[in-house]
Write a structure and sequence with these properties.
Distance between the termini: 35 Å
CATH superfamily: NADH Oxidase
Order of helices and strands: HHEHHEHHHEHEH
CATH class: Alpha Beta
Shape: globular
């Protein structure tokens, strides 16, 4: 599917077909494509918990204020923003950059310094913003890629983050910016027209 078409067709679907599962190969392909999302210094500070088990979806539904789509969708992705992604991923990223010719070995220390200056220590506000910002880029890529693969999605921030962390073993230093239901639309459902969108002149200033 053309990327412009995918963006135009993407909708937040409330009614998923609970009887139709997503093949494992398709789910893996979706996540591989989404993982091409851009990130600051290519540090990719995100993790994903793909909730497929019916019992675990029931648990997640309770954490998400009893939203039926959490249980009806075949898969719900818990998007985890990881402030420690800097420390976990920087060495692999720098080694790859050197190997591929993006940087020279002697630039390693200066690159590490820039990263530390920009994003601060792991518990700093700027580090949390860094993690959430980049995990959100990944999440949007999930939704566009899903539409391209013939899937529907619904991003949600209506949930008890503390409860999700407790039930799914997510450390307190991580952040859950959203969960995303992924699946196929329930047969017989007709979508209403797309909801209100502002005109470009209402939110853009040209200088």
């Amino acid at each position: 599917m053309d990327v412009i078409q995918a963006l135009k067709e993407r909708r937040s679907i409330n009614f998923f077909d609970p009887e139709r599962s997503i093949p494992d190969d398709t789910l893996k392909e979706l996540l591989e494509i989404a993982n091409l999302a851009p990130s600051s210094f290519n540090l990719q500070p995100w993790k994903v918990i793909a909730v497929k088990d019916r019992g675990r979806k029931k648990v997640l539904r309770r954490c998400a204020f009893d939203q039926p789509k959490v249980e009806e969708a075949p898969v719900v992705l818990i998007i985890v923003a990881d402030p420690m992604g800097v420390e976990e991923n920087r060495n692999a990223v720098i080694e790859s950059n050197i190997e591929l010719g993006y940087m020279k070995p002697e630039a390693t220390e200066s690159t590490l310094g820039m990263i530390q200056t920009l994003y601060g220590p792991p518990n700093s506000p700027q580090r949390k913003v860094f993690a959430v910002k980049n995990a959100s880029l990944f999440a949007m890529s999930v939704m566009v890629a899903a539409r391209g693969l013939g899937l529907e999605t619904h991003p949600m921030d209506g949930f008890d983050e503390g409860a999700i962390k407790k039930e799914f073993g997510i450390p307190n230093d991580k952040i859950v910016p959203m969960i995303i239901a992924v699946g196929y639309m329930k047969p017989g459902v007709t979508l209403l027209p797309r909801a209100y969108r502002r005109k470009v002149e209402d939110f853009v200033r040209f200088e």
